[in-house]
Amino acid sequence: MKIYVVSGLGADFKVLERLEFPENCELIFIDWLIPEKNEPFYSYVERMAEKVDPSEPFSLLGYSFGGIMVQEINKLKPAEKVVILGSIKSDKEKSKFIRTGEITKLPRILPVGMFNDRAANVYSVVRKLFDPKNPRILQYFRVRDPYYLKWSVEKVSEWKFEEIPEVIQILGDKDIVFPIKYSKPDYVIKGGTHLFPATKYKEVSKILKEVFV
Description:
Blueprint: E1 2-6, E2 26-29, H1 41-49, E3 58-63, H2 65-76, E4 82-85, H3 96-104, H4 106-109, H5 117-127, H6 137-140, H7 146-158, E5 168-172, E6 187-189, H8 196-199, H9 201-211
Parallel strand pairs: 1-2, 1-3, 3-4, 4-5, 5-6
Helix pairs in contact: 1-2, 3-7
InterPro entries: AB_hydrolase_fold
Protein name: Pimeloyl-ACP methyl ester carboxylesterase
Organism: Chryseobacterium vrystaatense
């Protein structure tokens, strides 16, 4: 079984590198693409989905914003299973903070310059608030293209999606980005912050080995 994997907003795959899957699984990582100028979200999803080969059975796994992306890819190329880590199943699960961005349209009007490399470093420091005990947090967020970061924040805040019950959702009970109180996850990682795939990898790996049998 091939599993196509998409990581989180601005994150490379180091955040997922310690996860273990059944031996019969082949992981294929889909790197984030840089959005084209004024590119519609559906067009971007189509480009991300190009790497997925639907001629044989496959599954999808996404972390954070990657969880949103794999659910969109699943609409174009239906998977055997869709698993999301630290992500949401529909726009109804957005936090109040994200909803504020959606209502005010603030992410859309912010200048690209606010997402430059210096600002991205500040952004990474802010992310420490989500998991202050993790000394490696700066190693996880390496996609620093300003236009990509601004575009991604916009798309998360604007995202509209009807829940697909079959999607398997794994959330940490200490996640601030996507608080568990707004969702009904299939699996809960005790003490898991938004970086639980890296910090609670043993617990997550056990679940993944149950899911991908």
